[in-house]
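Case study 2.
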Amino acid sequence: MSDRMSDAEDRLARIERRLQSGERDVVPAWRRATQGEPRWAVTAVILVAVALQLMLPHRLAFQPYWVLPVLETALLAGLIAGNPRRVEPRTRWLRLLGLALMAVISLANGWSAVRLVAGLVNGTEGKDAGPLLLTGGGIWLTNVIVFALWYWEWDRGGPMARVRGHQQYADFLFVQMQSPETAPADWEPAFLDYLYLSFTNSTAFSPTDVMPLSRWAKMLMMLQSTVSLVTVVLVVARAVNILR
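Prediction:
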């Protein structure tokens, strides 16, 4: 009799614990309102992209070569001033400022990539293998950063919308979403997760462990793979030809 009572009490205790943490057990962190992610990671990566642009040969940059990097730095400073510590929903202009920054970085790197490819095709670029590989590597790495920013900015409406937890359907399916038991209960995707997604898509030219779900996500990943493939093939082929 006492054993049965003890077993019943244990069951009641487990039920009470589940009821107390019911919402946390049922709704994962990435689908509910949470605190905004720290800004340091995305800020550091954007500064790396600006530095890579300044290191490229000036003939490949949008002229004058310093205009877009200065504009990017100014836009980033505005974002930091509006949201210094965390990426949190405050005003609409912060969202527009972030999109403008992504667009400027994309324009700068896209311009350099097109100029490099055109120069390789026309024979005006790629006289020396070493500088060519450094230039191509810088454009390729900046391209990884650019697409990571777009994935991060658009997935479920962007980081500020994800904080509110309003959009329940994800555009990218991470492993932790499929197998929540492999991650902490408060896990949710942050910028470094999207940077990893962008890097693996640029190296494998296809999804690896992060699956695109929405059509725009599939098209954007396809575009990134195409740009990465063209850049790598042309730069490496020209460098090998020079070394021979």
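The radius of gyration is 23 Å.
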